[in-house]
Amino acid sequence: MQQFGRRRALALAGAGLGTAVAGCLGSDRSSQPTDEPPTTDDLSGHVRPEDDPETVPPALSCDETDFERHPAGYDADELAWGDTTETDGTPQFALRVDQLAYDYGETATITLTNVSDEEQHTGTSDEYSIEVQTAAGWQDVRGTSSDRSVVYNDLGIVHPPGEAFEWTLELTKTGLVAEHPLEDRLRVCPDLPAGRYRFVFWALNVAVAFDLAR
Hints:
It is a single chain. By secondary structure, this protein is an all-beta fold. The chain has one domain: Immunoglobulin-like (Sandwich). It has no helices and 16 strands. The N terminus is likely disordered. This is F5/8 type C domain-containing protein.
């Protein structure tokens, strides 16, 4: 898998040491390229529930005084659900989640697939948001200490047609940060409430959503 890139940081309040990370999560893998790239109709999985969420929790509040929420690395005004296209409307990538509803402790599997007929580029697989829809809007459930910064190597990953990233996320307080390159500093606070969640892959400004029950 070809890589290229530059370094960038998403700084939280305060100054501190940054850790640069690169590459894909240990749980990520790329599928083998196929002779004919899949179409969105060929893909399994879902984009988001059609109905409104049954539960909308209050704004997230963490009792740790030095906790700062993870900043968003995407443009909310330009967010796409499930599919991305070229400027001429040609299909580019498809993001899917394997289920629309989970219980706390289950594992969500999310895949990104190049559905075009040529190579495409994205950032690394560790640059994403995991958010819950609250009374204050969408909020990332993760964060870190206010005296530390979140730093990523903004590498580019080349995807042949039919290839995909895959994320497996255990829907628990510790599971959502396990195996992330910044696992040593990221944490979830408070614990995951019941409600509607979305996974946003920054490089493509694309999201999928699902419900979590407790």
